[in-house]
Design goal:
Elements (H helix, E strand, L loop, with lengths): L12 H8 L4 E10 L4 E10 L6 E4 L11 E4 L12 E3 L10 E3 L1
GO molecular function: protein-glutamine gamma-glutamyltransferase activity
InterPro entries: Ig-like_fold, Transglutaminase, Transglutaminase_C_sf
Organism: Atrichornis clamosus
Length: 102
């Protein structure tokens, strides 16, 4: 058989951003025609996008029945500013999680 050939393609953020929505993955499909046989080959690949890590820090003592301040830190991995972003804290004992606009 002939040697394998590698072809590299780059998908920019501007190209895939409109199709991501609230998903954390891309589904890529590559297709090729074999001229000699007329055969079409296709392969799909699901790529999970890396989401930023959240760092949570307790800023004061955690006392039962009292509010506890928490700092949330994350790095925006996108080449554009975030707009309309909301953080929501959920957990045991939190009766009604409050969304915080960022």
């Amino acid at each position: 058989p002939p040697p394998a050939e590698t072809v590299t393609m780059t998908v920019t953020y501007a190209e895939y951003q409109p199709h991501v929505g609230d998903q954390d993955a891309l589904k890529l499909t590559v297709a090729g025609d074999i001229q000699e046989t007329g055969q079409v080959l296709a392969k799909e690949l699901r790529v999970r996008l890396v989401t930023p890590e959240l760092t949570l820090t307790l800023l004061g003592p955690a006392v039962v029945g009292q509010e506890t301040p928490i700092q949330v830190v994350f790095q925006n991995p996108l080449p554009e500013a975030l707009t309309g972003t909301t953080l929501r804290m959920e957990g045991a004992g939190i009766a009604c999680p409050k969304p915080v606009s960022v």
